[in-house]
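Need tokens for this chain, all 600 residues.
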Amino acid sequence: MASKYDFAGWVTKNDLLCSDGRTIRRDAFKDCDGTEVPLVYHHDHSDPTNILGKVLLENRPEGVFGYATFNETDKAQHAKEAVRHGDIKYLSIYANKLKQNAGDVLHGMIREVSLVMTGANPGARIETAFGHAEEFDEEAVITTGEELGVFEVKYEENIKHADEEVEETKAKETDEGGDETIEDVFNTLSEKQKKAVYAIVGMALENKNGSDDEAEHSDEGEDDMKYNAFETGVTRRNTISHEDFDAILSDAKRCGSLKDAVLAHMEDEDGVLYHAFPDGGVPTTGMTVSSNEQQYMVNQPSFLFPEYKSLNNPPEWIKRDTGWVSKVMGKVGHTPFSRIKSVFADITEDEARAKGYMKTHLKTEEVFSLLKRTTDPQTIYKKQKMDRDDIIDITDFDVVRWIKGEMRMMLEEEIARAILIGDGRLNSSDDKISEDHVRPVVNDKPLFTVQCPVTVAANATGSDKAEAFIDTAIRSRKYYKGSGNPDLYTTEDMLTEMLLLKDGIGHRLYKTEAELATTLRVNSIITVEVMEGFTLNSKEFLGVIVNLADYRVGADRGGEINLFDDFDIDYNQQKYLIETRISGALVKPFSALSFTATTA
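Here are the structure tokens for all 600 residues:
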């Protein structure tokens, strides 16, 4: 892979359960084959001097192998001697853009390799440490006691097997007498090597004295440090580099929004993998290990919990009560044409009356007025779109059918609202349903809707308004000239106040809605949620009595409710449009009674 390097080893091994609960599967990092990444000390990105060199990655069936080269900085040379001496034996990776299935890592990108004191992946370790051919006369094999066998390295002329190494070392010790003490060996070290030993021993003692609970005893009786001896604690952090942020910005236009671009780059829950510590975290100087961290049994039992199961597929809508919508849409009349014209002859004036005749007098002709009103149609629509990738990925239910159902439901609610009280938008709004095209019943022309003020005191209570409303509705019934028995459309609050009315001894006046409807001389009482808080000409609206059979909704052929699908190949998006082109108006004079509260 590389002709010259300072050491080589496995940066990660496949199919081994790591202490952070993850298992890296084969070819998870195959896209990193042949790439060079920085060599860092203990994933500390806060100081550029912690960059010790670079690592050339090679993807193999067993995992990812790395060939590392130190740079010429003091820290790098210090670390080089520690690796050569066997003080540092483990490697660790920092990866992001992870794709996981439960605890299995299936894909990711390695961003750097670190020298660490202990690792999460049991197979991530330095296998061979040696210098450039022109710098060193001997090689050394650094292992941890685990029998891994002979591994394949392409440049065998620079490597000796462990058995040959041991034999050569024993021979050399025999030639030199083999009676050296630890002090004699220590005195052979250079000043830099001695400083490294001082630092390692001092920090190990400090960690040991600070918390004996952080050491776990292995089956052989040896102490294995659970956390890095060079750091006082670990913590998890979610990070994003300048390089990643620039990539997100460049993808924002292609994705359609910055949010979609960020989600595309953060493909797993954590976004990054610091694969050197038991909790998948990153050491941060000055931070301490949480006292709540579980120190027994399985370190991350949540990885074993079953997946969440949805109780409602598809998701339930949070919406207004729309039970009244079907009643409105079912009661209105329909015409197969959208341009509605109503013509009336007014014969209520005296000139239209029949006349008596006296002999020798001239007979005069009847005179009456003709009235005409026309209503033109308007298009009402609702539009949606979804990324095709999302449609394919949502497999628990038919998301397209779900979206289309919402569009139909909201379109019908808007039409029913416009028929009764208008859409409520300002006249300047581009989205307004014009009241000249779909005429609201509550404020139609006086020829069609009779305005009936309900007079109440300024400090009137809810029951006072209810009593006044019932009295006014009964007295105003004489003005109704519509078809059949009408319905009352009102609010839930007004209906409640009327049902709560009591006589002088505390008995309910109306035990059921049917009794109240009979008193009001209406067929039924229908509560409309969108009437809550509605005002008409700055007055509190109380209700409207109308038979919607006298209201005509017209649509030409092709102008009925239609749903259209379209696919945008440039942005890979499926688009949906539901629309209708209709007109609507009362067609019978004096067919509605509208009630508003008026202060006496």
